[in-house]
Here is the input.
Amino acid sequence: MNQEDLLFHKANVHSQNGEDGIVAAIFSRIGVESRICLEVGAWDGMHLSNCRKLILNGWQAVLIEGEPNRFNDLVLNYRDNPLVVCVNRFIDDGVNRLDHILKEQGIPSLDFLSIDIDGLDYEILETLDTRPRVICIEVIVGNDPRLSTRTPRDTAKNMVGQSLHMFVQLAEQKGYGLVCYTFNAFFVRHDIIKEFALPVLSAEEAYVRCLEHADSSTREWLYLYNLGLAPGFCHKFNNPYLTRTALGITACRARQLLWRVRYRGLVQSLKKRFVVH
Here is the structure.
């Protein structure tokens, strides 16, 4: 096992793409200080959470969720945990800035920050002045990791976001280096990278490594996702890293996948046509 490649430490307890294992691996290397984490887009604080495992290990947490029903579930799940503060806000670049919320809660420093809001994650990082030791932030996998132009906000907010290159460039300006990518990018502060000799990756290198670790079902989903054909997603990314050949999918298998999509669309169309009003 290559211990330098954090993707070998992928493991899920509550996370979606192995983030629980990667968080554990990073902090086993750099140690902990404040034992405080913050999650933006916390949902109910359990579903696909990057902070839940830390909370169960005794960390203090600030969990932010803007959607009212999810927030109600969040409060219910943590009503008996005095170390967890639940905040019902949508983060913006004004009074609801992340830094302002931290100040309101009297949080001086963070060991870990997780951001996952399905589109405008870059905008939150852009306004961030607080300097967590480690940041985990969603970077939409559909974008070519080399893209150096900013996607318009009205497009980005619809689960399109910005490229990994754009995130890496912004993170570098804020004093962070990229150490891993799982569909979420992991950034560590430069001073910590230097102190613990952590390997830093380019956007393209991290992206390619992530695809190399993807199993066949994930690769097939990415192929359809790139074409705007994955269930629940319609944006066409036209990412050369996510073509059939780049993902190692045979022509025969690709035809099967496309046939399934067309069949599903036909069934849905017939259901709508014959629905009884």
Q: What stands out?
A: Residues 28 and 41 are 25 Å apart (CA to CA).
